[in-house]
Amino acid sequence: MKKMRIVAVIPIRTDSQRVKDKNLRPFADTTLLDYKIRTLLEVGELDNIIVNTNSDDLVARINKQYAGRKVRAQRREDYYASSECSGSEFFQHLGQVTDTDIFVYAPCTSPFIKATTISQCIQLFLQEQGRECDCVSTVSSIKEFLWLDGKAINYDPQHAPNSQDLPDIMALNFGCTVTGRESLIANRNIIGKKPKFIIDSDIEAIDIDTPLDFYIAEQLYIKLNLEHKGLLD
């Protein structure tokens, strides 16, 4: 049987709106992009790691810096890096331009997801593919009192439960998503019609979306590094 080709894609848009160039600006002693590549290089199941970007300079830098390794950069057409492009168009395009059988979506904005968790997602997908599963994605369990349009949506305010008794609602955190390339193109989304979810830790689930998120994640990264080096009690 032919070995399934497994490729991780790191999407990089250089004109990010809320945190300017968040993936490339200094993040303690590294950048979010370089930190993500370092993590993915520890994932043994991956055949290649592709940085998909609209920056010619970044394409040149990555292809020079990682020459001879399983990392390369791919130039994204400008439309697919613009605000005119919908999320569905973007995901379908990623599937169309990525030469792989199994697609691993690995954004920089989830810096703390572990290589072991990514491997766990890949292994579960390989085990379940073709049965009742067309994607595996990391999620966070939400235990909050949620309202929409003036109405509670996950509890009865007149019979309010304790927070631990609220229903288990899963929120996609996009730390890692594994799907088949054909499913990605057909569904126009990394989340398919028969997903399986892996709940990751609170730290792994951290997603950088605002300047405050970036600051908090950077301070946590510094603390974790100091602890790893034995410089903190």
Helix and strand pattern: EEEHEHEHEHEEEEHEH
Task: Summarize the biggest pleated sheet.
Answer: 7 strands, mixed
Estimate percent helicity.
25-40%
Measured on Cα atoms, how large is the radius of gyration? 19 Å
Q: What structural category do the secondary elements indicate? A: alpha/beta
Strand element count: 11
Number of helices: 6
Mean pLDDT: 92
CATH class, named Alpha Beta
At CATH level 3, the topology is Spore Coat Polysaccharide Biosynthesis Protein SpsA, Chain A
* CATH superfamily annotation: Spore Coat Polysaccharide Biosynthesis Protein SpsA, Chain A
**CATH architecture call:** Alpha-Beta Complex
User: How far apart, in Å, are the first and last alpha carbons?
Assistant: 51 Å
What topology, given as strand order, has the largest sheet?
5-4-1-6-10-7-11
| Residues in β-strands, percent | 15-25%
Q: How many structural units, i.e. domains?
A: 1
User: What oligomeric state best describes the polypeptide chains here?
Assistant: single chain
Unreliable runs: none
Shape: globular
Can you tell me about this structure?
A seven-stranded mixed sheet has the order 5-4-1-6-10-7-11. Strands 2-3 form a two-stranded antiparallel ribbon. The chain is globular and about 60 Å long. The longest helix is centred in the last third of the chain and has 18 residues, at 211-228. With 233 residues, the chain is α/β, with parallel strands linked by helices. It has helices at 32-40, 56-65, 87-97, 115-128, 181-187, 211-228, and strands at 6-12, 26-27, 30-31, 48-53, 71-75, 102-105, 135-142, 147-148, 151-152, 169-180, 195-199. The model has no long low-confidence stretch (mean pLDDT 92). The chain has one domain: Spore Coat Polysaccharide Biosynthesis Protein SpsA, Chain A (Alpha-Beta Complex), CATH 3.90.550. Helix content is 30%, strand content 24%.
